[in-house]
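Example record used in the benchmark description.
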Amino acid sequence: MKKILFILTLLLTFPAFAQVDRSQQPQPGPAPVIQLGEPERFTLKNGLSVLIVENNKLPRASVSLTLDNPPITEGEMAGVSAMTAALLGKGSKKIDKDSFNEEVDFMGASINFGSQSASASSLSRYFNRVLELMSEAALNPNFTQEEFDKERDIILDGIKSSEKSVTSAARRVENLLAYGKNHPYGEYVSKESVEKISLADVKAFYKRYFLPNNAYLIIVGDVDGQGLKEQVKKLFGKWKKKDFPIDNIPEVNNVNSTQIDFVNMPNAVQTEVSVQNTVSLRKKDADYFPLLIANGILGGGGEARLFLNLREDKGYTYGSYSRIGNNKYTNSRFRASASVRNAVVDSAVVELLYEINRMKNEMVSDEELSRAKAKYVGSFVRAVERPSTVASYALEIETEDLPDDFYTTYLESVNSVTKEDIQRVAQKYFLVDQARVIVTGKASEVLDNLEKVQFNGNVVPVNYYDKYGNVIDRPASFELPDGVSAQTILANYIDAIGGLDALNTIQTLEVSYNANFMGNALEATSINTADEQKQIIKMGGNVLATVIVNASGAKVEQMGNSMDLPPEMAADMQAAIGIVPELKMMENENVTVTGTEEVDGQNVYALEMKGQSTTTTTYYAVESGLKLKQTTVTEMMGQTQTQETTYGNYKSFGSLLIPTTTTVPLGPQAVDATIGDVKINGETVSAE
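Model output (structure tokens):
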């Protein structure tokens, strides 16, 4: 009753509440007036344009150097720009790397470099020195063979780590098919291209493209504009202007009709789906703002059509979005995408095409239009509160050839978009009838249904590619050879590692693996018996966690605390208890053969074991019978986590064959572990 009286009092106190007709959406008020201010501008004789925005609210300052160069084709040496970026900032010809880094750290500053950019920030009392250090490292780089070798190895390690990444393969092929391999946006960095790059190539790239001709220096913060003007002239005035080489950028065209381009990734546990076409769009075009709103309605976030359909309604994915780019030098892309479960790939393709087509054929609702506008208005208003926004907008007015009032009238431009504008630009730019539907996934699980997808009453033709965008034949359908079953594959594995008789003599098997993770020594020990498994993880000699699985359940012990794992997860872990998990798998009716694939050049059988919360796929070599890889997909609390482990270099320890190396990807890198101690029935056994 007290709450009811409070609400009644509130309504009586503010009678306007009772006068609002909530059946009618309120009319938007006039767009707020945006006062961006004007940066101080000047241009050096070498062509470097400088913009300074003074803002004394905080005792900080930042600077960014941007080279507004056209896209650069790197060709057979794709990766030379990445190498250049990695080597910039390693000191200068006057300051060695360690001294440079120590001084930056002492000031609490940050200085970063790209192949055609640089940036820095610091407290304002250090800013003059930070600007000096940035200019010194940018204009007088210290390119050494030692640093080149280090950075090349890092890039090669990154390429190796992403070799089996479905997402990396999808993005690589999407770009290649959209632009072509000879286009700056279509080429990709490979092991072969990186190995062709020399230190001399990096120096030549820097000398050729790191020029002041199209460069912009933007300084924002608590600074003295007049004093900085003289310092900028001193630091950057000797930067020599040269004729800038213009690469011929190939013309980009869309396909004549909708097609599916399938990229086979046999290790994929979920599928990357994108619908894309190229567009000719610049920020100064009249269609820019209608397209901004149209894309927001289609796939701009959790309130957009793609998300509401594919996630909220169908449950195919954790998110589906779209974006459309703009570029003054070449075509950009319209792209709608989702990462979906393998079982629903064909349905996801149908829904993506449906939603894009609906934007062209149906008028959006008043509510959708208002919501999309409000989102962009809010984002813009928040952005202009940041001092750096004034300078970045001023830069875009220069580089994009925008009218001077582009940003002061930004909100008016957003609010002036109509439903008719939305449909018009959707028909012009969302070219679903000339789109590539690029599907990157596991052929054995998705291809049969994918080849039946229809659009506008016609079956969509399918092309086939490998993970590098090369045309291939249709991946062969899986046919299990006569006499081969899950039980025979598991039996062959048991025979390959020593045989059932040898395993029956083992009461306890303890195996340790050692690795280095982020500079720390990591040790993982597994202790297996017939009815219990214990895993102990140490870092730097200290126990991080212990996982114990037995008939009573599964628990994690950490820092004196013990936590029981959820029953469904415990049940799945119990299904793998034993000296080796294959002994229990032999008795499991949920283990099935899903196909034949290739792992590291070897043909393998894929065995899938579905549990309550996890699905584990294990790959056994057809020829040797040995286990080469295992992928585990865990679904808990609406989230999916995938863990992949590879096994190699098997050696005999007593009567048992054990892999001496394992690799586990962790994000963009991988942890390579080598075998340590092996104990059988409590006695240490050495490799033979």
